[in-house]
Design goal:
- The protein folds into 2 domains: 7-132, Immunoglobulins (Immunoglobulin-like, Sandwich), CATH 2.60.40; 139-227, Immunoglobulin-like (Sandwich).
- The protein starts with 6 loop residues before the first strand and ends with a helix.
- Helices cover 20% and strands 40% of the residues.
- By secondary structure, the chain is of the alpha+beta class.
- The chain has helices at 18-23, 175-178, 241-288, and strands at residues 7-8, 28-32, 37-42, 47-50, 59-66, 69-75, 78-79, 88-91, 96-99, 108-116, 121-132, 139-144, 148-158, 165-168, 179-188, 195-204, 210-217, 220-221, 225-227.
- The protein has 3 helices and 19 strands.
């Protein structure tokens, strides 16, 4: 935006300039810089608003505001502590405003207002603050049936909201032939504005096993994982050779033990009968004499 000489009353610049308007009721000229400064931060982190100043001149007024809301600054020798944002700190020597404990609501356009001694012109420069948040590593779940598998990737706590993307690594086939995207949703938290991004895809497992699949949002990517790698399950009524062999061995062992016990019992019974017959024979011989 080219510099302008638009006249504006300080009392119309909102509550951030109210104190100055009460002290000086004259009308000043406002000039704006033609370039917006880009500033980036992450949720929970810190940023510093470095407003462009002429170090060779003495500043009489320095304000940082968002729209018409005062953020921090000073006029003359007086800091505006009662009206400042509580998560900001003013550095008068370097004309910086430090902002900490960032959250998504701090995203927006900010304005630096600077006036020098013996100058009725207030210079304005714009700073665009963008606050982002990295998504967590995704939670990956699979659910398979006889025909295929559904895979869900869920990312939490990120900003801005982005769709989940899927990639089959090392595949020469068109991804659309191997997977079908069932849904792709972003749900923001009402309190923090952080986004949960979730996507579900369905794979037809009749093609082949997919060994290297991943999902991602922004710069966060899951580990590679396989899909359709299920091993055939043994049906309850099927004949498992191992089970059959074990069962036959158990039966044979039982028969062998039973036969051994029966033979021992039979031998004892035969020996007892033989002994009884011998004693009876001896008794008869004694009687005959």
């Amino acid at each position: 935006m080219a510099p302008s000489s638009t006249k504006c009353s300080l009392s119309n610049r909102g509550p951030s300039l109210l104190l100055l308007a009460l002290a000086l009721t004259v009308t000043f000229s406002l000039t704006e810089s033609d370039k917006t400064i880009q500033l980036s931060g992450e949720v929970g982190g810190n940023v510093t608003f470095q407003c462009p100043v002429d170090d060779k001149r003495t500043i009489s007024l320095f304000y940082v505001q968002r729209h018409e809301e005062f953020v921090n600054g000073y006029y003359g020798e007086r800091d505006m502590d009662l009206h400042k944002w509580q998560n900001t700190r003013l550095d008068r020597k370097r004309t910086h405003v430090h902002m900490y404990r960032l959250n998504i609501s701090h995203t927006g356009m900010y304005t630096c207002l600077i006036q020098y001694n013996n100058d009725q012109v207030i210079k304005a420069s714009s700073i665009q603050l963008n606050v982002t948040a990295s998504y967590s590593k995704p939670n990956v779940t699979q659910s398979c049936d006889a025909a295929g598998c559904s895979v869900t990737c869920a990312f939490y706590g990120g900003y801005p909201g982005n769709n989940v993307t899927w990639k089959i690594h090392g595949s020469r086939n068109n991804h659309s032939q191997l997977l079908n995207v069932v849904n792709n949703t972003q749900v923001p938290s009402p309190s923090t504005m952080l986004v949960s991004s979730t996507s579900t895809v369905y794979f037809n497992c009749s093609h082949r096993e997919i060994r290297n699949l991943s999902c991602s949002v922004g710069n966060v990517t899951s580990d590679w994982f396989p899909v359709c790698d299920r091993k055939p399950e043994v049906e309850p009524n099927s004949h498992n050779p191992i089970i059959i062999v074990v069962a036959v061995c158990a039966v044979l062992l039982s028969l062998s033990v039973g036969a051994a016990l029966w033979c021992r019992h039979k031998k004892r019974q035969t020996d007892r009968e033989k002994k009884e017959n011998e004693e009876e024979s001896k008794n008869l011989q004694v009687l005959e004499k």
